[in-house]
Specification:
The chain is of the alpha+beta class. It has eleven helices and twelve strands. The strands form four sheets. Strands 3-2-1-5-8 form a five-stranded mixed β-sheet, with no helix packed on it. A three-stranded mixed β-sheet has the order 4-10-9. The chain has a two-stranded antiparallel ribbon with strand order 6-7. The radius of gyration is 30 Å and the shape is elongated. The structure holds dinuclear copper ion. Dinuclear copper ion binds next to loops.
Length: 399
């Protein structure tokens, strides 16, 4: 758009044009400006077409709503950082608006001065006399050094104060909930030490109470980001970093990995469920229960398949399945999503996933090496439809 406007302005003599052709004879001038006009028109058409093409390509990226977002939140922008839902996100938002308005005032003043100067000192009456030049005005130099310095200092004070506030650990009196977060290619592991509960991709928190995350990574650098609750913070292998989340009210908040971490980075998402204190306690105590294995039927057959095909990577608490390379599935049926919170947890999605996970999400299980502790996704297990029916029935019992 900016290029199109610029090209259109370029056609006005006051904004340049082609001086040499203006200075030349009448007929040459006309021929010259006709050529320029035609070139500009062609360029402009090309840019407009390019902008339209880009718009259609980007619109096509939306794809089907596998996440079932519409059924979860009443918003087209569930990751809008300008719609804060907690104290940390609100302080970032306040700072953003402060900087935005300062920048807007500067933009308007500078552009107004620029436009004024362009019109006031434009070339007039076909004379070639140069305008009066000004060199080395000490007063001007001082003014345009001091003004930006004062503006930057004014922005720096609240910025640094906000940064320190965001980094502070909640005081013991705030009774923060502790959660340990581990980033994996390409999913999130959440461990609640107080409750001895491990879950994946969906973080449940009590509303109105700070949650102190202690984070690390099992492989490469990831970044935890729930835009409505706080800013981003990296998860670095071999180090721990911290982030405080707090939601004002119960609600569902969407987040995603914000640091490129390989093939399925875009499908490394998470959801935060902020609940009332009572709902959260009920959730945590239900999650702390071990699984009860099905005794008969398709679910029992599914458990047999699970032991052979899934147990070396997945854990189901209270059973012999103790793999720790992939999400803990003890209460899989209680989750709304799977696959890095990328697919709504429905039977249809699960069936597609079990037939061929790589078809749904880009991963590289051919590089998996369990002995070296390296897992880059779930492989195609070559399951039969009967085995898939059994696994779906078994997973459905893991409430
Ligand atoms: Cu993890 Cu991007």
């Amino acid at each position: 758009m900016i290029s199109v406007v610029w090209l259109a302005l370029g056609r006005l003599p006051a904004f340049g044009g082609d001086r040499r052709s203006i200075r030349a004879g009448q007929s040459r001038r006309h021929r010259g400006s006709r050529v320029i006009e035609r070139t500009l028109r062609r360029k402009r058409t090309f840019l407009v077409l390019l902008a339209l093409a880009a718009m259609f390509v980007l619109a096509a990226c939306a794809g089907p709503d596998r996440l079932g977002i519409d059924s979860v939140v009443d918003s087209d922008l569930p990751q809008n950082a300008l719609d804060p839902a907690g104290p940390a996100a609100r302080s970032i938002d306040n700072l953003w608006w402060l900087v935005f308005w300062i920048a807007t005032v500067i933009f308007v003043v500078v552009e107004a001065a620029l436009i004024f100067v362009v019109f006031r000192f434009r070339r007039r009456g076909g004379t070639d006399e140069p305008v009066k030049q000004v060199h080395g005005s000490t007063r001007l130099e001082i003014v345009w050094t001091i003004i930006p310095a004062v503006i930057l200092a004014a922005i720096a004070v609240p910025t640094i104060a906000t940064l320190f506030d965001l980094r502070a650990e909640p005081a013991p009196s705030e009774n923060a909930l502790q959660v340990e977060v581990t980033g994996h290619q390409w999913w999130w592991e959440f461990y609640y030490p107080e409750y001895d509960v491990t879950t994946a991709n969906e973080l449940h928190i009590p509303a109105g109470r700070p949650v102190y995350l202690t984070m690390t990574s099992a492989d490469v650098i990831h970044s935890f980001w729930v835009p409505q609750l706080n800013g981003k913070r990296d998860l670095v292998p071999g180090r721990t970093t911290n982030l405080t989340l707090e939601a004002d009210e119960p609600g569902v908040f969407f987040g995603q990995c914000a640091e490129f971490c390989g093939l399925a980075h875009a499908d490394m998402r998470h959801r935060v469920f902020a609940e009332t204190e009572a709902d959260f306690e009920a959730w945590a105590s239900a999650q702390a229960e071990p699984a009860t294995l099905p005794a008969e039927g398709p679910a029992a057959a599914g458990w047999e398949t699970f032991q052979i095909s899934c147990a070396s990577c997945h854990t189901v608490d209270g059973t012999s399945a103790e793999g720790d390379f992939a999400p803990n599935l003890t209460h899989f049926a209680s989750r709304t999503t799977f696959g890095g919170a990328t697919f709504a947890n429905t039977e249809a999605h699960l069936r597609e996933w079990l037939r061929d996970p790589i078809d749904l999400k880009p991963m590289r299980p051919d590089y998996n090496d369990l002995e070296a502790g390296r897992v880059l996704g779930m492989p195609n297990l070559g399951l039969t439809e009967v085995e898939i029916d059994g696994l779906i029935a078994f997973l459905d019992t893991l409430e």
